[in-house]
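Quick entry, no commentary yet.
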Amino acid sequence: MRVRATSKLLAVAGDPVVHSVSPAMHNAAIEALGLDAVYVAARTTARAFPGLVYSLLEAGGALNVTAPFKQQAAALVDHPSETVRRTGACNTIWGDADAPSGDNTDVVGVQAALKALLGDQPPATARIHGTGGSARAVAVALADAYPGADVAVASRDASRAASFVEWAASAGARCRPARHGEATDVAINCTPLTDALPWPEPPRALLDLNCRPGHTPMVRAHLLQGLQASDGRVMLVEQGAASFERFFGVPGPVEVMRAAVEDALRA
């Protein structure tokens, strides 16, 4: 894509962020619609993150936010969506630098990914691995899509799991601490871990929010056991299309974005 001097600058901010497929996905959509914009990956720090946000907005741009800045992003926006208020996490920022708007499109992305994985069979039990911003989106997505599910939260730090359960109650997402070794219908990995979940009993279905070429080792191992599993590519496309609409005011071209992601993740 040729970048003009007047191009609208968009970014995904995180640390690390070099592995992100978002630039390939968004630039394909931008090119397909003939828009004057470019989307880049921007590695930053907690200290520098606010300056990056305001600089992009002041220049007429916008951004997506990935780990570990989603909760910090929620505190920066003046016009948070109801989903941001509920999750306390934000992955999409746009608008006026003096009064930014924010949304958390991860929730709709997670719901689409779970629907693609599970079909019309609602899980009776679910387990969330992790307690960060993505885990918050997963908890809300599960509560809204599968209100009858028993949702457990697994963390290497028992105090963090307990704090997450307390937060979830305030967000209308009923959770409890996981009991080691218990079986579950679906597990959602919200951590950077990609090798294997530290759990002796494999879930019947696995959603790993990480994306890697040829799927993550965790997903591949699960599929070899004849179990259902998928990585985060469906979530990535769906949340990306929703973010694109916030950035440009037009629907994101989902099929174009999906094709770009599949091409970028081809082993």
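second:
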Amino acid sequence: MSRTSTPLPSGDEKVAAVRSMFDTIAPRYDLVNRVMTFRMDVGWRRRAVGALGLGPGSVVLDVAAGTGDLCLDLVRDGYRPVGVDLSMGMLQHAHTAAPLVQGDALRLPVGDALVDGAVSGFALRNFVDLCAVFDELARVVRPGGRVALLDVASPSNPVLRMGHAVYFGHVVPRIGGLLSDPAAYRYLPKSVAYLPSPSVMLDHLRAAGFGAVSRQLLSGGIAQLICATRRVSTAAEAGG
């Protein structure tokens, strides 16, 4: 985790900060992503969509859809995506024909068990309450449905971890500052501190009502893909 002299925002302050930040960086968001990941982000998203394993025509919710990159990959694989994002600025710069709506991941504008799956790209650390988001995913995804969630990670190899820390902590903010908003890309490395440990995240998913939970490291461990299947029922649901 990154150590910072200024505490990261939480609660309503974090919601406002995240919305404002993404509104600001929306015009050049895709460009910065391609440059700072050397286009590896394209392959990561395709891996996430490929991991869903749902039937053609399945409805898949893209949570924190941003400019719609994952929606494009979902359409390419024969799915019917619907995107939700907190930032209206990001939605206004979207380049997908999929239906998009402004909304909060903690209160998804979707009925119970109405989607076949859900994806999210590099947004887990930006949510105010990750457990509540997992609960919402369990609510809207039908039993047997799948979720595929991407986010950053830290390599387990100490040499790779050191190099990644230098790049992510010092080079990425400079790239973002040159191409977009400096403050936003200073926040990016710090925001990793919001993520719980991998084992805790997987436990949270299980507690929310998901099984077959797995975590895969991508590109030497700089990104992670978390997948799970919505269980038919949970002990809590059976007793309720």
